Amino acid sequence: MVVNCTLTAGVHTFNFDLILPGNLPESTHVDKYYNVEYKLTALAEKPTFSRNYIARRDVHLSRQRSHITTDYFDPITVHSRWEDKLSCQVSLPTKVYTYGDLIPIKIEAISYTPHLQIHYVSCTFKEYVTCRPVNGWFNGKNKSQGRLVEYTRRETSQQKMKMNEPWPAMIEMQVPESRTEIQCDANNDSVQVRHQLKLILSIKDKEGRLFEQSVLFPIIIAITDSIGLLPSYQDVWQTLPYSPFLILTPSTCSIIPPSYHSR
């Protein structure tokens, strides 16, 4: 957008819309291998021999997950069993989370043999990124990285289990608020970003031997944890871009901007 005008003293605001193509890759960073970032630049040109004003701002671009349906927002429960000695049920309130969310993990274990004890409960929250070998990158092989988002461990060695009675516990994991600490799930031609929770129950028997029971939860980190808050890319054309001509034109005007499918 270009605006030519003479400004008087004071604060001036220029509104604008910028429609982005729907096939742009998401903002993604993979150390040493892949980086997509966007910047918005505003330039105020001053008369000759005067220095122009330039302002820049980083823009984070995330794709609304069109495949996320209401099923993803239902509670999730996973059952695990250790032979005939112990069963464990782990529950999450939903599979989809966003920046700053708290993830409550509900645990319920039942012992079927005497003298079992939960030594500790731990949870690991990890992000996995895979760069695909498009255009001959990486000698035709995937490049994968994993990083720890959060780890927590709760000592429970003082709590003894009773046979055939539920042993409840709760662990909470925090989704970081910063986009530099965690990225949204992504899956395009070049890169895949996914997230996983791994819960471990450390179990001690009467001889003092330790055993581990693990449960894996794939979860989705999205730009929003609600359905329908953002328009899909197919519908984005319905939002009119900022244009002084359109604003000054009477409402009877039938001008409609073209969709991305138009040629």
Could you explain the architecture of this structure?
- Strands 7, 9, 10, 12, 13 and 14 form a 6-stranded mixed β-sheet that branches.
- This protein has one helix at residues 244-248; strands spanning 28-30, 34-36, 38-44, 53-59, 76-82, 86-92, 96-97, 102-111, 117-131, 143-155, 166-174, 186-187, 191-204, 210-221.
- The longest helix has 5 residues, at 244-248.
- β13 and β14 form a beta hairpin.
- It contains 1 helix and 14 strands, in the order ββββββββββββββα.
- The chain has a domain at 70-222: Immunoglobulin-like (Sandwich).
- The protein is elongated, with a radius of gyration of 26 Å.
- The chain is mainly beta and 263 residues long.
- One of its GO terms (molecular function) is ubiquitin protein ligase binding.
- This is Arrestin C-terminal-like domain-containing protein.
- It holds the Pfam family Arrestin_C.
Distance between the termini: 22 Å
CATH topology of the domain at 70-222: Immunoglobulin-like
Contiguous runs where pLDDT drops below 50 for at least 5 residues: 228-263
Name the beta content range: 35-45%
Helix fraction, binned, reads under 10%
CATH class of the domain at 70-222: Mainly Beta
Question: What is the radius of gyration?
Answer: 26 Å
CATH architecture of the domain at 70-222: Sandwich
Question: How many individual β-strands?
Answer: 14
Spell the H/E element sequence: EEEEEEEEEEEEEEH
- Provide a count of the helices: 1
Category from helices, strands and their pairing: mainly beta
Coarse shape = elongated
GO cellular component, one term: cytosol
Pfam family, one: Arrestin_C
GO molecular function: protein-macromolecule adaptor activity; ubiquitin protein ligase binding
Protein name: Arrestin C-terminal-like domain-containing protein
